[in-house]
Amino acid sequence: MSFFTELVNIVKKKKIVFRMLQGTRSHELNQLQIFKPYENDIDMDFKIIETVSEEDVCGLHVLYVPEEYPEDADAYYAPYKKNHYDIMFAHTTFDFVARPGQIEISKKETHTAPVMIWKEWKDALKDGFATVGHIHGRNTYGKKIFYSGSFSRWNFGERSEKGFTAFKFDTETKEYDVRYINNEMAPAYEVVSVRELGLNLDESTVDQIKDAITPFIGNPEDNLRVDLAGLSKEKIELLREFYKQMPNIKIEVFEPKKAVLKEYKLKKEEFVKWHYITKRQLPIPEMIQKYCKEEMGVDLKLDIIKDVITNEETT
User: Is residue 278 scored above 80 in pLDDT?
Assistant: First the structure.
């Protein structure tokens, strides 16, 4: 309500045409009706779009596609696919961002919003584009469909850039420019596991572990989830108690399944195997000798190796 009230003030001051589209029914639960009285406000041009409709506004021929659940989506949207629009404002899922099987499910279940098939709509937007909501991440298709994504982050599953879409449309030439504007104030949601901090979890002290976690802690409005799996119960409890003072830090102990642990252990062993190279634990001649013997089955004498790598005339 606070966000909407501030938006209304801007709209009135700048004389902006203001349209709000209905989104996912299970998310909104008819809450857009709260804003219905604003449609009678004579100081602004405001409408809530609850069903597919067209409008000529600001020199543009516009199509609005809010989320609906028609029994026969093909017949319902057929008349609009035959027309031509400068801009489509929509809250929907196009096929290029649909999950596997979502198209077939949407055809069979009327309580599920239909998936829009781009090839059926491309003629309608031959000279225009669609700016779309619903998908939380940004996405662009053929410079014709633009998902701006959500304007901020709300959980640990949303780590991509957030913000708004701004566009300019020349009503005479039909040329348009679309760009994303990042919301620099969107809070961060980062994840770190103590297993990935390069520490010896058995020997490291609690203070050493805290010092390793500290660089991942951003601003007070940012959020951090820390996985403490691999530490002793005593260290976990001490860290839980310490970070309890910081509400933006969420402590978890994610114990992966045995199969995952086995894979992790194998990868770690494989990584450690190459330490004599990656960490330069041996002089170069000995490094080469060890590699040739273990990986190639060739036992070279150190004198030969030294001669090869120091003699420029050797081929």
Answer: no
